[in-house]
Design goal:
The chain is built from 10 helices and 14 strands. The protein is an alpha/beta fold. The chain has one domain: UDP-N-acetylmuramoyl-L-alanine:D-glutamate ligase, CATH 3.40.1190. The strands form 3 sheets. Strands 4-1-9-10-11-12-13-14 form an 8-stranded mixed beta sheet, with helices on both faces. The protein has a 4-stranded mixed beta sheet with strand order 3-2-7-8.
Length: about 325
């Protein structure tokens, strides 16, 4: 671990992920043979684990219930080095769960998310953990949180950088009132359009978010790659081809990779390439987070062409 990297507080959801991948073409209304796997997931938890595996000192603030999901989530975080001692535990509730159905190529066909427990992360609950803010150097939040919780974080973060994942087009509008408080915002086209209540191409939407006060916009373009819009304008990077075992968690790896890359590289293009490499590395795994993720693995597999002198941190 590079102890000079920012201590990072991640506030968001943690789920039990259940993913089913068909062996062949999906037949609706029928029992389809395939592979079913369960693992710890959730946007906030996934980002925390990715960052920890990339060398960050991370604390996860989430909510879990009094069931088997709690143990799976806490054990997974502990094995990755994520601090969990501040997690809210509610014995009378169920831990969040996410059920995904993938086709034979690993692409998501449909999903059901039960995230009701995250509504218990209220401003009052966050106030009890306020001392965590002064113990960390940056905050990552995501739009599974309630609007009130997101606004509390924005109002109480002080000078700490705040990075936010918009999560989905349905949940993204929750953050439209805190755009000027966000240092890095990760969206896709649908999420950006939902926040802005505008339509347009990716460059237009990213620029519009930047003009509304976001410091840096990271816009995922899925299989096409991603773009970044910041004070240097727009930068594009194509996706890296790889084996697609499952789509689940790739966006979380992209965001975590970009946050980490801001500490690794000065050039936006290098930051974006590293982030895309992290997403590709996760696509190769059926888990929400590839357990083999590390700066060294990304460098060896994807970024051997980057001049060694450009790496301020030598893994």
């Amino acid at each position: 671990m590079n102890r000079d990297w920012p201590k990072t507080l991640i506030i968001g959801g943690a789920n039990l992920d259940i993913a089913g991948s068909c062996s062949g073409r999906l037949i609706p209304g029928d029992s389809n043979p395939g592979i079913v796997k369960s693992s710890a997931g959730g946007v906030g938890r996934n980002i925390a684990e990715n960052l920890a595996r990339l060398g960050f000192n991370c604390t996860l603030l989430t909510a879990v219930g009094g069931d088997i999901g709690r143990s799976i989530i806490i054990d997974s975080c502990a094995s990755a080095g994520v601090t969990t001692e501040h997690i809210f535990e509610f014995a009378d509730a169920s831990t969040g769960s996410y059920l995904a159905i993938n086709n034979q190529l690993g692409a998501l066909l449909a999903a059901i998310a039960d995230m009701s427990i995250i509504e218990r992360i209220t401003p009052e609950a966050l106030q009890q953990k306020r001392s965590l803010l002064s113990d960390h150097d940056q905050i990552v939040a995501e739009a599974n949180l309630t609007p009130d919780a997101l606004q509390w974080i924005a109002a109480n973060k002080g000078l700490l950088p705040l990075h936010v994942d918009a999560v989905s087009a349905t949940k993204a509008p929750k953050i439209k009132h805190i755009l000027t408080d966000i240092d890095v915002l990760k969206v896709n086209r649908a999420e950006a359009a939902a926040i802005l209540e505008l339509q347009g191409d990716d460059d237009f939407l990213a620029r519009a978010l930047y003009e509304r006060g976001v410091g840096t916009v990271l816009l995922s373009q899925g299989p096409q790659g991603a773009l970044v819009y910041n004070d240097q304008g727009v930068q594009h990077k194509a996706a890296i081809k790889g084996v697609n075992a499952s789509d689940t968690g790739a966006g979380d790896a992209l965001f975590a990779g970009f946050i980490a890359a801001r500490e690794l590289f000065e050039k936006t293009t290098d930051q974006l390439e590293f982030a895309i490499a992290c997403a590709t590395f996760t696509l190769n795994s059926r888990s929400s987070v590839n357990p083999d993720l590390s700066v060294a693995a990304i460098r060896e597999q994807f970024l051997g062409h980057v001049n060694k002198d450009h790496w301020p941190y030598q893994p």
